[in-house]
Amino acid sequence: MSHHPPTSRSRPDAPGTEEATTVLRLGEFEGVDTLTLSEASLVINALVAKRRNDRKNVNETEMLTKTMDYLDTFARFKKKESVEAVERLLSSYPHLQKFERAQLGSLCCETAEEAKYLIPSLADKISDEELQEMLDEIYKLMPR
After folding, report:
1. Long-range contacts of range 11-20, CB-CB < 8 Å, 24 or more positions apart?
2. In the beta sheet, which residues pair with residue 19?
3. Which of 60, 85, 136, 139 is deepest in the core (most CB within 10 A)?
């Protein structure tokens, strides 16, 4: 018998075991800052614009182009002020995980029922009334 402490680490979860159901299991992404699609669009577009302005190599790969196209299509909020307002609103619900708040800010659901269907982990964390109030506030910030 060895008198040395074990030197092996616990095996990390296999990739692909993450899930976002009634219980969030985000694996290595647990607790990581999460962006809405609108926030991601602002960040990527600002970075590309800065690199172009600084005359640095932007390295516009097909992946970058497709990502920017996707974000331009699906990001609900285009103006920086609106994106920041949504982020402030979502941050006022600290009992929700960052992932859940980012999903709410990206999906822009119309009803609490729809939000809880698409984000099942919300079910026991927020009342339908409180969630509907939040969704109504997000809706007020949407461009018309």
Report:
1. 20/99, 20/103, 20/119, 20/120, 20/121
2. 25
3. 85
| Cβ pair 31, 98 in contact under 8 A | yes
**Residue 109 in tokens:** 């659901």
List Cα–Cα distances, 27 to 23, 96, 118, 130, in angstroms.
12, 17, 20, 29
For residues 141 and 144, give the distance between their C-alpha atoms in angstroms, rounded to a whole number: 9
The Cα–Cα gap between 75 and 78 comes to: 7
Residue 125 and residue 119: Cα distance in Å, rounded?
A: 11
